Amino acid sequence: MPLTIAQLLDTKKVLLCVGTGGVGKTTLSAALGMAAALRGRRVLVLTVDPARRLANALGLQAFDEHVQRIYLPSDPANGRAVTMDASMLDVKRTFDRVVGRYAKSEQSARRILEHPFYVQASTALAGSQEYMATERLYECATCGDWDLVVLDTPPAEHALDFLDAPRRLIDLFDSPAFRRVIAPTSRLKTGVFRSGSLVMRGLQRFTSVEMFSNLLEFFGQLAETFDGFVERARQVQALLTGPDAAFVLVSACDRMSTEQAVSLYAQLREQRMDPAAWLVNRVLAVDVALADDSVDLGQALGPQVAAMAAALGVDTSQARVLADSIAAVVRSLGHMAVADAAAVQRAQAAVGTALTVVAVPRRDEEPYNLKELSSIAQALAPAHAPAAAAGA
Ligand SMILES: Nc1ncnc2c1ncn2[C@@H]1O[C@H](COP(=O)(O)OP(=O)(O)O)[C@@H](O)[C@H]1O
Ligand SMILES: [Mg+2]
After folding, report:
1. Which of 168, 177, 243, 285 could form a disulfide with 361 if both were Cys (CB 3.0 to 4.6 A apart)?
2. Domain carrying residue 136
3. Per-residue pLDDT tens digits for 28-73
C-alpha cells in the first residue's frame, strides 16, 4: 500500500515536486509545505521560480535566499499559531559556500571566488542550477532546523536533469581523464596544452587560446575542491535514493501532461528514487452529472431564470433564451469535469496501486495568497497534528 499524502507529510524529511513547466509544482510545493506545517512539522519550502504574486504571498524577494517565516492562517482546530519557512534558491551563493567548504584554505577559496571565470561558471555552467538545488536541499535537510524540506524543482528542460546533476558531476570530476588533464596545474603549460602545440592549434579554430588557457587555469585552481564535490554529490545522491526522500509527481489534466508524468515516473524508478504520489492538478470539482445530455437543463432552469429576470426588471420573454445560455455554460463545465475525471483515472490506471493519486481541485482564483493556498493544503491532507507529533 502506498503512503497517503498525510503519511508522507508526517514521515519524510524531503519531498521533491517534479513535473514539466506550468503544471503547478511551485504552487503545490507551497501547499504541501503548508499542509505539513498544519500537521505539526517544522517545514521549509525551498522554491526556485515563484511567480511574483506567489513570492509576495510567501514574503520572498527575488535572488534572496534568506529564510522567511510565514504565519499561516490559524488552525481552527486548536487555535495555535502555525508557521512555515520559505526560501529561494540562490545558485551563486550556494556555489560560494560549496567552494568555501572544500577549498584547502581561505586564501585559495578567495582565489577561486575572485577568478573572472568563477561568476560565469557558478551561474551559467550547464547543470549548475540543478546541482545547487540538490546541494541546498541537502544543506537544509541535514542542518537540523527543519523536520521536512519541500523542494520545488527548477524548470529544467528535462524535468529530471537536476537528479542527474550530482551523478554527472561525479562522473566528470572523478574520471581519470579529467583529472589527468586538469588537476596538476603545473601540467597545463606543458605537454599537449603548451602554446603552439598541435592540440592548442586545433583548439584555436574554436576558441581563442588565451581564453582556453584561462579556463584551464581556473579549473586547475578549482581542482582542489573536486574530492569534496564528489564526496558531497555522493551524499546528496544517497539522500535522494534513501528512505527519507520521496518524489511527488505533478501533472495537469491533458493527455500530454499525463504521458510526461508517466515517463517521469519510469525514470525515477530507474534511478532508484521513490515516486510516492501523483498530484493531478487543476481538476474541475463540479459534478460530472452536469454533462448528462438527456436532461433539458434549459427547461429545468426556465422558471428560476424567469423569476430572476423579473426581479432584475429584465424582459421576461427572454427568460428561455437566457436559461438555454446558462444551461450551455453549465453543460460545458460538466464536460470539462468529465474530461478531468478521466485524467485522474488515466493516471491511476498508469501506475496501478503503486502510487497515491490525488486530484487537486482547480481554484477559481489563482492561488496567490495564503488563504487560497491553505484551501489546497486542506484538500491534500487534513490540518491536525497527528498524536505522535503533537507531543513532540
Ligand atoms: N489548483 C490550481 N487552481 C488554479 N490555478 C492554479 C492551480 N495550481 C496552479 N495554478 C496556477 O497555474 C500557474 C502555474 O503554476 P506554477 O505553480 O507556477 O507551475 P510550475 O511551478 O509547475 O511552473 C500559476 O499561475 C498558478 O497560480
Ligand atoms: Mg515553478
Report:
1. 285
2. 5-162+228-284+362-390
3. 999 999 999 999 999 999 987 777 777 877 777 655 678 889 988 7
